[in-house]
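Q: Hi! First time asking for a complex rather than a single chain. Here are the components, and I think there are two in total. Is that enough to go on?
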Amino acid sequence: MTTPAVLSYLLRSINYRFAREAKQLNYRVVHYLNQFFGQVGGEDKADIPFVIKEGPIGPGVLLSQLLGDGIEVVGTIICGDNYFSNNPEESSLEALGHIEKFSPDLFIAGPAFEAGRYGVSCGAVCKRVSERLNIPAITGMYHENPGVDIYRSDAFIVETGNSAGKMKDDLAKIARLSKSLLYKEWADKFLTGDGVGSPEEYGYFSRGIVKNEYVSKTVATRMVDMLLHKLKGEEFNTELTLPKFESIELPAPINPKNSTIAVVSDGGLCRKGNDAGFSGRGNKVWTYYHIDEFFKDLGSRSNDDYQVVHTGYFSVNVIDNINRLVPIDVMREYESEGYIGNLLPIFISTSGNATVAKECQRMGQEMAEMLRINNVDGVILTST
Amino acid sequence: MKLQIETTNIKDVRKDEKTYINNGTLFVNVDNLKQLVLSDDRISSVDIEIFKPGDQVRIVNIMDTVQPRACVEKEESDFPGFVGPIKRAGNGVRKSLNNVYVITTNPETQRHYSAFTDMGGTASKFTKFAKSFNVCIAPHQAENVGETDFEFAVKRAGFVVAVALAEAAKDIEPDAIKVYDWSFEETFKIDPSLPRVAYYYQLYSPQHDNKGISDPCFYGTQINYLLPTIVHPNEILDGGIVGHTTYRALGTDAIQNHGVIEELYSRHGKDLCFCGVVCGVANLDPIQRNRKAMMASSLLKDFLCADGAVLTKIHGGMPHVDLALVAEECEKLGIKTTLTVQPLVSTGTLSATALFSSDILDAIVIVGATQEKLTINFKPQIIFGGTADSKIFNPDPFPQRAGDSIIVSEEFLIAGIHDHTGGAFISAKEY
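A: Yes, that's all I need. Here is the structure of the assembled complex.
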């Protein structure tokens, strides 16, 4: 947006907010539809660029009624499925430009049901709106719509049927969620103050976040209640179900004498200044260092050359002598004695502290790939 | 053993020439408190301030938060091992004050992180210390005193002040009296149809020991070597066990009002028989850990005769695994268990946050995702326990200072929000 446009938008927003608060005007909603639901045409019109209309169109009319008094669908943005998916980055930005002109309090896209291109475009626009306008963005999709997995963290995706057959029910769900968000019905539930209704109650796909919330019973009461049910053989609801891990078949043992051994560590060791970019907690990156360079002149190097980025242990002993974490001194001895074939000239370093299993698995696979390419037969993995 | 806690509700706190209570107002002779603190020659000087609800203050470098409690009978020991001599805690009459806390800070701390709390701004909505009167102390280190020694002196100073404040209630009628009367023998005289429920209390982990030295949280002594042991529940309520120096959602005041112990006492004889407490420490070494799990479960089974057990953990990742091992050994002996966890991340599914896997542990309660980040808007008028430059911890590598008007903190570092004793009305869910 150009500067005058930005200023104009800001002024309108400010004026509008004061006006709304003074006169209690309606909450403003903008609705996004594809060419079909926007009543332009079918697949033959999938190439149409953006069409902007005032007020609700098509299913937006019913949506408007379901949203009730105090909430108004002030504008509808229509776009052809093909036009959008030809360049989703630009199209979603273009959509954002049209949407923000309406100064909305809430944005609704679709619902897209099972339509893949439509679902992805709904999700993409919702994502832009959430990030840039900081207002709730809601859409609706069938659980098999590819848009669900891609955008579930970026928007509230209400679960719908696979066709417009149950449109009224699906729109009712969207309307109900919209109202709870606009009226901030659950704001105080979360410790972080931005509470929303639960996915189960409002029928949307969970957005992949874990939130602390206030509940009516203390932890102690819940524990004792749960235990008493368990002791009586009654049903109870655990608050967390443990994951099932796949069991990995152990590879055949190797003879170290003719093997290449590598050292990998998750103790968070890096160069001073955190060249590796590790996070002290929940870290998701890994790196490698050339052993000769990293361990050069160890005796004469000061402690200032290294850093441990890992909040889960007291690392002073490691900084004092990094061989305690990455045992290169011993590995070198083994190599010269012929106890191992040879030591890989690089060691891999990461920081493993409260990182979720999925990320650990990904990093492990990436590391394994690098080690495999370097013909490594065995790994010493030092942990803390 | 019988512990009788006589509580006075405090509605106001004011400075005065004497320390006494009149009509719900606590009058405090601050100079007197200072002299008491300075009788420990490891402390060269001390700042003491009293803050009331509404004061726009940020209190940093917090080492402990303590509810004022004092023994009435001479034979009993206040905070044994710290203030009084090591004597078994949990028997006799205590005077206690509600709505007043002693907040112990160490302005010279060398630790990477400490707790802090806000009495104004965003965080004040969630912490209990924004609603209470806080007598805050900030001792300064004397020359030639080592860091660990000084930390002990600071922690002790907090207890000394807590006792002095509670002693003001000695001669007045309490507003409430609560009696904790429990003996192991008597548990066999309770209705035998009630299930026998015990508590396993993981009270410490060595992973964050500053300089590798354990916090003295059991009768004022270090316990990284402690084997699982049976304790009387009153010992926990009465200062035998105190909060960690690293704090981390476990101040002494939470232990003085221990969530699980209070719950089990309140249901004793009603829908369960509270048959005792085993406490233990988390172990870094797997052999010690296995030994501990074996010993703790057999204490629960063969010596407390438990049908079921609730188990809680302290903050940390490894403590999850450690506690789960104890629970599994209990289940193998036929003791049904429920245990607590804290998701350490705020993204993904709850299952994905689990740090252990088990086929037999199916009853889990979530204390909260204690490392959830809270964005705090607050420009404090006063900073106590440090300065505007005092570091506020952030696991990501950019610095924040106590004087910054916007800071981001993991919730467990904010004193007064989470509670590892199970006393908070909090859970975590997927959204």
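A: The longest strand of chain A covers residues 71-79. Let me know if you'd like any chain examined more closely.
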